[in-house]
Amino acid sequence: MNAVDMRSVSRATEPEALATERPRGRTPAWWGMVLLITTEVVLFAVLLASYFFVQFTTEGPWPPGGIRTPELRLPLIMTVLLLSSSAPMAWADRAIRRGYQGQLAAGLALALLLGAAFLTLQGIEYDTKLAEFTWTSYAYGSLFYAITGFHGFHVAAGLFMIGFTLVGTLRGRYTYERHERVRQVAFYWHAIDGLWILILSSLYLSPHV
Amino acid sequence: MTVKPDTTTAASAPRAADDAVGERLSETWPEEHGLWAWFTTVDHKKIGRRYMVTAAAYFVLAGVAALVMRTQLAGPNGDVVDPELFDQLFSLHGTAMIFLFATPMLFGFGNFLVPLMLGTRDMAFPRLNAFGYWVFAAAGILMFGSLLFEAAPNAGWFAYVPLSGSDHSPGYNLDVYTLGLLFLGVSTTAGAINFIVTALKLRAPGMSLNRVPVFVWAIVVTSFMVIFALPPLNVANAMLFLDRRFGTNFFDTAEGGDAVLWQHLFWLFGHPDVYIIVLPALGIVSAIVPTFSRRAIAAYPLIVLATVATGIISFGVWVHHMFAVGLPDLSLTFFSAASLIITVPAGIQVFCWLGTMLMGRLVLNVAMLWVLGFIVLFVLGGVTGVMFAIVPFDQQTTDSYFVVAHFHYVLFGGAVFPIIAGLFYWWPKFTGRMTSRRGGLWSFWLTFAGFNLAFFPMHISGLLGMPRRIYVYPGDTGWTVWNLLSTLGAYLLTVGLLVTLGTLVHSLRRGERATDDPWGGETLEWAATSPPKVYNLPVIPTAHSLTPMWDERSLASFTDGIADDERVLAHQHAVLRTSELDGRLEHPPLEMPEDSPLPLVVAASLFAGTLALLLGWYEGTLVLLVAVAALCWWLWPHRSPIPEDGADGGGGQT
Ligand code: HEM
Questions:
Q1: CB–CB contact B250 A143 (8 Å)
Q2: CA B566 to CA B537: how far, in whole Å?
Q3: What tens digit of pLDDT does each residue of B305-330 get?
Q4: Would you say the CB of residue B93 lies under 6 angstroms from ligand 1?
Q5: Rounded distance, CA B400 to CA B596, Å?
Q6: Would you tell me which CATH number, out of the four given (3.30.390.60, 3.40.50.1980, 1.20.210.10, 2.30.110.10), belongs to the domain B44-525?
């Protein structure tokens, strides 16, 4: 290689030049979202730990006081709905990184629908449960409604965020170059979905074991 | 080994840079005045100062509560206050000192100093930062205000159930406690996330993790602890509120709940919280000791590892607050061992400071004097702490004044002394004025003597069997003389603190003007003017060592940077972004938000919502919709001239 080539090669590979072409590294907002999710996960972990703590210090059957072991049909359908909503979310996130705004909007809308369906079913689930026991029925009832309710609240918040992002998308605010927000909302949504698996296992599946 | 160079010629490099580019920078980072600016500012220095002033005000209020208690206890059968008020006084005093004074005060230091020490221009999320301050200030108003309605928390600072349940504690008192702390938790969590992200992403180029000042490390470790420790507290408080207000049964043993669950959750937070308070204070000490020993901190990697280790181990010791509850022996043994082990990293830190002083040239300045006082008190508090780790000893002394003595040595000695040391040390940077040495000496010796007179006798009255949290005691117990001494000590301590305050206020009015770097400090905050300009440093330097102010190459980067647009960054309201581990420059710079009323609006609406919930006016919580609307405006993806990061394989968009 001659001298001129060397110079242009080194210029093109200098950190600055490379960085301009391929921005790398995580942004502050990325870290902010990761930390927010971390503290939320700890929150749910503490709630579930409290649930098991109370279960293990309770003598006799669990759930106590003649409350039936939870039925699984509806919760499993809810699980399928919520988990499958992560797919369009991931798809939307991938799409906008390539600049496809239409796909972004479609993905968000689909996730929104699936999440809303989950919440609706949770309403129905509560309706049948409340006929059987309420949040004042033993510590069990308190924990059951607190944990599922708090999660449901997070789903609602997540849906609001998705809706908010969808509005932004329809206004053309997310592009090939600006789409960080989409990724953060997706993170949050996946975290809520993941937490549901823990809740399903603890509150619905574990009493069957 | 790095020692402070004797020549100070190079230290004028930042000044030269400021003369060259300061004017241009003031256009993008203008100094705003007036009422609107006061309510909307997002400048980390203003917010940091506010945190400190507000926390100091809450310290005074909580201190007055303590003085009333000490007056009541000066002799047997005191009748200054009735038992109902006494309960509120000690509960409010403890809760406020921990939640409204210690942590916010240290967050104030962090807010002011972390961006400066890292060589950047603001926190990563400036508006979130402002929001955190407003929430904290409002939480304090709620807690102290409740005293006016005799509705202040009254079940001790750890509010054990069933005492704190609605059967035994009707009234709003404990709702103030649970909701107040939940509300405050929002601020603490937001602040913690902000510190971590700032330290990860906004460091000056070249500042790899092994060049990050110990103080910043301490703040970061503390923040991680907040992320993991606050959720248990929040869950516990939410459950207690629901139990009290909506008839749930989390802690109601008659309905299958568990009262010990509260204790586990509370101390799972509570013990880490002790270190959440103490670690940043130790960080202040680690910042002061090198400057006045004229050499870099000894065994830097060890002290950083010790800080991290303390943070981690502190999550494994909570049960030592519950040795007397009747838990299985095996768990007592485990937690006893862990509690002994945690003294090791604390010991390492002490030896690092001592080593630094021994190997350096000690300059006995006022700030350093407070540090030495701290070391003495902290070691004393540590010794009684190790005693509690021994289960049988703990079971004998728990809930006695011995405990009160112990934790004041750790918390007052371990946090307030470093805080005051830090105030004297950074006062020139905070305010642009020097403090009087004479005033400083008086303030130290009076406070030190008063502190020991107030709290040392409590060890003895405790061993003589005096329980904590009693509002009167009979005259024939042999406690009288020790209590009288304590009370006299508390008054002397008050005099000392007033002299401290007087010295600082005097400096504001009459103090000599401070130079940029009056002590010859080693970290980057000393490169800024005193007080710093809105933009902090005129040129973003390159950090070539742990002690950039003492090394020629880092200093030279100030003058070299004058011609470099990227390092001056005068054409946009932005900061540099660097990689997490090595501090390598990343592109593009990060755009910073302008002043905004949104943080105040969101905080105010959250506060109003909390009040509505507290008073049981549930329709009133609809005011939270204002917060939601404001957040939408806040987070709306506005168009911006600077492209953001993340365009994988994106073409050059400069
Ligand atoms: C200003 C000087 C101070 C004085 C004179 C003082 C005095 C007292 C007194 C008399 C009590 C009540 C003891 C009892 O009745 O059981 C107390 C409790 C307490 N203090 Fe202090 N204190 C001071 C500073 C501090 C500081 C700086 C902190 C923490 C950062 C602190 C944290 C506590 C805590 C957590 C309690 C326990 C409250 C409870 O029993 O629930 N104090 N203090």
A1: yes
A2: 13
A3: 999 999 999 888 887 778 777 777 77
A4: yes
A5: 50
A6: 1.20.210.10
